[in-house]
Structure formats: C-alpha cells, structure tokens
Amino acid sequence: MKFTLKNATLVSMMAIAASVSFTACDDDDDDNNNSTWTAQDLAISAAGILDNYVDNVVVDTYKDLKNDSKSLLDAVEALANEQNATNMANVDKYWKAARQDWEYSEAFLFGAATDYSIDPHIDTWPFNQTNFDNLMSKYNPSENESDAEVIDESVANTQSLTGFHALEYVIYANGETKDPSSLSANELYFCKAVAADLYLNAIKLYGLWAGESALSEDEAAVAEEAEVEFTYNYGDEFKNAGNSGSRWKTPTLALVQIIDGCNDIIGEVRDAKIGSAHSGDDVNYIESPFSHNSITDFYDNIISCAHALYGTNEITNVTSVDNLTASAKSLMTYAALTHSDKTGVVATKLANALVKIAAMKRPFVTYYADESAKDAMDALEELEDALDDLKSALEE
C-alpha cells in the first residue's frame, strides 16, 4: 500500500514544524500561553490536526449515525403500520447503514460512548434471546399501555435487550430479513422502542461531541423529552488539549489518544470478535450472527482506524485507502514528516489487515474455525504492533 502525500502539503507541514520549533524556544511568543509545550505540541496545534479529527472524523461519523438512525426509526414505524416487503427492505437498508456508521465510530469509543455507557447499551452482544422470549410471552405492549411501559423501561435500561442486536434478532434470520408478515404486533412494538432508543443515543453522541447547539429543533426536542443534558463538549475538550479544562494535558497526548483508540478496537476485533469463537473459548460470542454481518462489522471497524489515522471519512475499502492522499491535517501526514519509515509500515499493515478480513470465509457464524480467521487475527496483531511503534516514536 502506498502512503502518498502531495509535495505542496509536505512542504507546508515542514514549514509549520520548523516555525513552531523556533517558537517553542521563546516563551514570550507562546500563543498558547503554555511554556511547557514541546515543539511537537505546538506543531500539532498549529497544523489543526485535532480540530480536523473532531470535525471531519468524529462529529461527521456521529452525524451520519444520527441521521441514519432516524431513517431506521421511520422505516421500523412504517413496517409496523404496514408489513410489506418494501418496508422491510427499508428496515434492512437503514439497519445496515446505521450499523456501518456505528462500526466506523469504534476507533473513538473514548469520551462520550464510554463515559455515558452508550457503547455497551446499544452494542452489547450476544442478544439475550431467553429474556426477550419471556418478555414477549408475558407482556402485550401493542394493546396494553402498562405492558408497553414495561417494554420501554426494559429497552431504555438494559444492555442485552436493546440496541443493534435486539433489532437484528427480530428482523433477521440466517442472513436474510424475515417475512414481514411473520412478525407479531408485540415484536414490532419492541422494534419501535429499540429504534427510538437507538436514535436517542445517536443524538446524545452527536450532541456531546458537536455541542447542543448543533442539534436540530426536532433532535433537541427528543433529547429534552428524555431529560438529556448536554453539559459537556468532548469535541471542544479534545481540540483544546493542553489547555485548562481538557483531560488531555498536551496536544501530543491527544494525538496519542487517536492511536490508542485505534488499537483498542484492533485488539477487540482480533481477540474478542474473531478470537473468542475461533479459539473455542466461546463459540456463541459472535457479533451480528443473525444478519451474517459479522465480517462486514470487523472490516468496518478497521476502516474506522483508517478514518482516524488519515483524518478523513472518504475511505470505504482497502482500495480507497491504497489510493489515498492523506488529509493535510492528519496524524499520518504529521508523523510522516519525521517517522516516514513507521507510517509506511502502518500503512502497509493496515491494508493487509483489511485484505485478510475481507478474505475470511463467510458467514463467520458458520466458519469461525476456518484458518482464514487466524490469518486475519495475525494481520491485526501486526497492525497493532506497527501502531505501537509509531506511538512510541511520537512519545519520545
């Protein structure tokens, strides 16, 4: 895989690095009023890397998740009103769209997704089929208001009875959408409650990173009805790394956080999402088994890393990575100035990991023991090692 940079971009970044190195020697000219910043901290800040990461990767991804989750809710409500093939196809379309948005976000689960427990709430698996069956046998939410409140409460306050995999269990079987006429009124009520909760949590993620003012009037009303308060802005905090009020004490530590976020999901895909079943430790611990979306999930998780590292969401597959000119305001562009050997290895290992995941035998729920799964795990380990080397170099 090529790691390409336009000559003009490279010259510009080198000029920034040179100028801030000089600035770092003169505390009187420190625009950040922080004399402890290194030349690297100043270069990261001056290049706008953190701003670009927040605005064009994190916030942009959560915006897509919010919008596609609303489309999914609308599609589920339409299906509940009229159980036909067209409406079911729309549910399928928008479940997969929102699912991809979410998988694209997993390289930055730090912040709101973790602090507010949104990740475990909307993406816990395996789905608790036994508890779901018990709910459906005991309650009649489509006709009984008090029963509906029980379902709403269960969806809002549990982890294994809500989110993407709750919808997946009801909508899909053996990799295909179910016959819409086979779904009961109570199952469809459950789906509406889950889709509404998913949309609410997407609004939370977007508002907590972009700020409450970024919400539309309708979105703000949904949040207000659920008594959601946006008293924190993760986007501003990350952009202002090294300044008062930010948990990231320097811009360098924020830059390293981008790598840590990538390695967190790389390790999870390798060890849990693929490894738990492949090793035989837990053959039931398989993500998206009903839709047969597992390998797509794995692939999109690593695309999430590409977005984070290259500072752009204009990446959908290994080909688009391979032909990419990185954003001028990205970690990879900055790191290539002084550590091009290490960014080159990261680029190569990233492409290889995507190739190996795409080559896994499908569906994973059937072929989790296949050797192709081990090949993907090995490639992910090599990618993690390459990122660790780059991280160490940036921390020196």
Number of strands: 2
**Element order, helices and strands?**
HHHHHHHHHEEHHHHHHHHH
Rg, rounded, reads: 22 Å
Strand order of the largest sheet: 1-2
In one word, what is the shape? Answer: globular
Strand content: under 5%
Estimate the helix proportion, in percent.
55-70%
Please provide a written account of the structure.
The chain is mainly α. It is 68% helix and 1% strand. The protein contains 18 helices and 2 strands. The chain has helices spanning 7-24, 39-47, 49-81, 85-104, 112-115, 118-123, 129-138, 145-157, 164-171, 185-210, 217-225, 234-239, 251-278, 294-310, 318-322, 331-358, 364-367, 371-395; strands spanning 172-173, 176-177. The protein has a two-stranded antiparallel ribbon. Strand 1 and strand 2 form a beta hairpin. Helix 14 packs antiparallel against helix 16 (331-358). The chain is globular. Mean pLDDT is 92; it is low at 1-32.
Topology:
Layout: H1 7-24, H2 39-47, H3 49-81, H4 85-104, H5 112-115, H6 118-123, H7 129-138, H8 145-157, H9 164-171, E1 172-173, E2 176-177, H10 185-210, H11 217-225, H12 234-239, H13 251-278, H14 294-310, H15 318-322, H16 331-358, H17 364-367, H18 371-395
Antiparallel strand pairs: 1-2
Helix pairs in contact: 1-2, 3-4, 3-10, 4-9, 4-14, 8-10, 9-10, 13-14, 13-18, 14-16, 16-18
